[in-house]
Write a structure and sequence with these properties.
By secondary structure, this protein is mainly alpha-helical. It has eight helices and no strands. The longest helix has 17 residues.
Amino acid sequence: MAVSAAKAFGQYLRTLRSRAGLSLQEVEDLARNTPGPISKNYLSRCENGQLGLALAKMTILCKIYSVPSDVVLERMELDLELEQIGGPDTENMSYEELIELGVKSIEDGDYWPGYACFREATQFAGEALLSDSYKDHREQS
C-alpha cells in the first residue's frame, strides 16, 4: 500500500472539510466554543497524517461537517484494519490502474485489496477531471 492508515484517514478528514466548504480557520472558529476546541494547526496535522484524531475532537468535527460519527469511526477502523492486514502495492499506480485493480479484486471476492485500491484512488479526486461524468471538481470529490 502506498498510504498509511493515518495518512489515508487524514485525507478523508480533508475531504469531509472540503465537502463542507470550510477552511481550517473556519473549522477552528466553529469549534472555538465547544468542549474540545480544535486549532487549525492540530487539524492540519491530523489531515496530513502526522497526528491521530482524538475521539472527542472527532465528535465535534462530525457535528461541524454534518456527518454521522459512526460513519467516520468506521472509516478509521477500516483504514487501521487494512494497515494490519496489508494491501496490494499501489505505489505509483494511476487512477485508471487503481480502479481496474479495485474492480477486479471486488469481482474476485477480494474485498480488502478492492477497498485499498478505491481508497488510494480518492487521492486523485482533487486533480483534473478524470471523467466527463462529473460537472466540476467539487462533484468529483
